[in-house]
Specification:
The chain is of the alpha+beta class. It folds into two domains: 106 residues, Immunoglobulin-like (Sandwich), CATH 2.60.40; 254 residues, Zn peptidases (Aminopeptidase), CATH 3.40.630.10. Helices cover 26% and strands 25% of the residues. Strand 7 and strand 8 form a beta hairpin. Helix 3 crosses helix 8. It is globular and about 65 Å long. Belongs to the peptidase M14 family. It comes from Sphingomonas spermidinifaciens. This is Peptidase M14 domain-containing protein.
Length: 370
C-alpha cells in the first residue's frame, strides 16, 4: 500500500520531501510572510503494520532549534489521545523519530492540537452557560472572529488571553480548563472568584495562525506579542481590538498564556523593568507566583526567563504593556512542549489534561489573592 502524507487540514503543517521504504523525510513549512517555523501537524495513511522512521530535515533552522534536544513529538490514532513517541534524536540539524503504526491512519504533531473547530465548539458550549456573556471584539486579517467570554460581576477586572502564538496549543487547552471551572455552578472557588471579579477570557488571539498551521505569527507574518505598544488594523487587528476592549474596562489582573519550546517546566514571567515599577507592586506578582507553587506540583519557580533590567522592559509585549498602561498585576504563563520535569509523566509529557488542571490551580490562587 502506498504511504500518503498530508497536512491539508485545520492547523496542518508539513512538506513531504521523500519517501524511501519506511523512511519519510519532511520539512516544516514556514509561517506565511515570516521566517518562523517549528509547529508541525500531519497525518500518515497506508503504513499500518510498519515501523516508520521520520526525519524533520530542516529542524536546525527552526525558530527555537535549541528546544529540540529532549523533545518528543506527539502521536495519535484517534485525535483525542496524544502521547509522546517512544523517543527522538536531534543531530546535525535533523530531528528523527520512529513509530510503529498500528492503525490505518496516524497523526503526528508538535503538541496536542487545538483546532478552530474545537474552538468554536468551546465558544458554543460556554456561551450557552448561565452567567456568561459572549462578545466578538473584532476580526482577524482573514476575517475570523476574536471571541471574548465574560463571566462574574465583581469589581476587579481580570483578563486572561491565549494563543497570541498559535503553535502554542497548550494555551487553549488551559483556556478550556479555565472556562469549564468558571462556569461550574458547584465549584465554590469559581463562585467566590465570580463575586470578586469580572473575568474576560479570550481563548484564541490568533485564529488565522492557528488555522494556517503557524508557529508564531498571524496571516501577515506578524508576531502579535510585539504589537501591544502600537497595534494597527493593517498588521495586528487582533491586538487592536483586544487592547481597545481592555481600555474600556480597565485591567487589574492579566494572564497571557503561552508555551515554551526549551524549558521543561511551567513558570511565570513578570513585568520587571517597566518605567513605573515599584517593589510593592511587583511583590503582588511574586506573591501570586509563590502561592501557585505551593498550591500545585504542576508549577515551580526555579526555572524561567531572566528578568529585564530597570527601565528596559519591552513595552511591545502585552505583559509589560498592561502593567505599565493600567497598573495591572500582569504575567505571562509559560507551559512546556516537553514535560514539567518537577512532576513528570513519561508517557504523556505535558498534556491537555494537565494544562487544564493548571488552569484550575491558577484560578484558585487568583481567588485567594484578589
Amino acid at each position: 500500500m502506498t504511504i500518503d502524507v498530508n497536512a491539508a487540514f485545520d492547523s496542518g503543517n508539513i512538506e513531504l520531501v521523500a519517501i524511501d521504504g519506511d523512511r519519510i523525510d519532511l520539512n516544516i513549512r514556514r509561517d506565511a510572510g515570516s521566517d518562523f517555523y517549528q509547529w508541525f501537524h500531519f497525518r500518515v495513511a497506508g503504513a499500518k503494520g510498519r515501523t516508520l522512521s521520520l526525519r524533520l530535515l530542516n529542524a536546525g533552522g527552526a525558530a527555537y532549534a535549541f528546544g529540540w534536544p529532549g523533545y518528543r513529538p506527539r502521536v495519535s490514532s484517534d485525535r483525542a489521545h496524544w502521547p509522546m513517541v517512544a523517543g527522538s534524536t536531534y543531530q546535525a540539524g535533523v530531528l528523527s523519530f520512529s513509530h510503529r503504526v498500528e492503525h490505518d491512519v496516524v497523526w503526528f504533531a508538535y503538541f496536542a492540537p487545538y483546532s478552530m473547530e474545537r474552538h468554536h465548539d468551546l465558544i458554543a458550549r460556554i456561551a450557552a452557560a448561565p452567567g456568561v456573556t459572549h462578545r466578538t471584539l473584532g476580526h482577524s486579517l482573514d476575517g475570523q472572529p476574536i471571541d471574548c467570554l465574560d463571566v462574574g460581576s465583581g469589581g476587579k477586572q481580570v483578563w486572561i488571553y491565549a494563543r497570541q502564538h498559535p503553535g502554542e496549543s497548550m494555551a487553549e487547552w488551559f483556556m478550556e480548563g479555565a472556562l469549564e471551572a468558571l462556569t461550574d455552578a458547584n465549584d465554590p472557588v469559581a463562585g467566590a472568584l465570580r463575586e470578586k471579579a469580572t473575568l474576560h477570557l479570550v481563548p484564541n488571539m490568533n485564529p488565522d495562525g492557528s488555522r494556517r498551521g503557524h508557529l508564531r505569527t498571524n496571516a501577515a507574518g506578524v508576531n502579535l506579542n510585539r504589537e501591544w505598544h502600537a497595534p494597527t488594523l493593517e498588521r495586528s487587528p487582533e491586538v487592536l481590538c483586544v487592547r481597545g476592549a481592555m481600555d474600556a474596562t480597565g485591567v487589574d489582573w492579566a494572564i497571557d498564556v503561552h508555551g515554551d519550546e526549551a524549558i521543561p517546566a511551567n513558570f511565570l514571567a513578570g513585568y520587571e523593568g517597566i518605567p513605573s515599577w515599584t517593589d510593592a507592586h511587583g511583590e503582588r506578582f511574586y506573591d501570586y507566583q509563590r502561592r501557585l507553587a505551593a498550591a500545585t506540583p504542576l508549577f515551580q519557580t526555579r526555572l524561567g526567563y531572566d528578568k529585564a533590567p530597570a527601565g528596559r522592559a519591552n513595552l511591545s509585549m502585552s505583559t509589560n504593556q498592561l502593567a505599565e498602561r493600567f497598573g495591572a498585576v500582569s504575567m505571562t504563563l509559560e507551559m512546556p512542549f516537553k514535560d514539567h520535569d518537577p512532576s513528570p509523566d513519561p508517557v504523556e509529557g505535558w498534556s491537555p489534561a494537565r494544562s487544564k488542571a493548571l488552569a484550575h490551580a491558577c484560578l484558585q490562587v487568583l481567588a485567594d489573592v484578589i
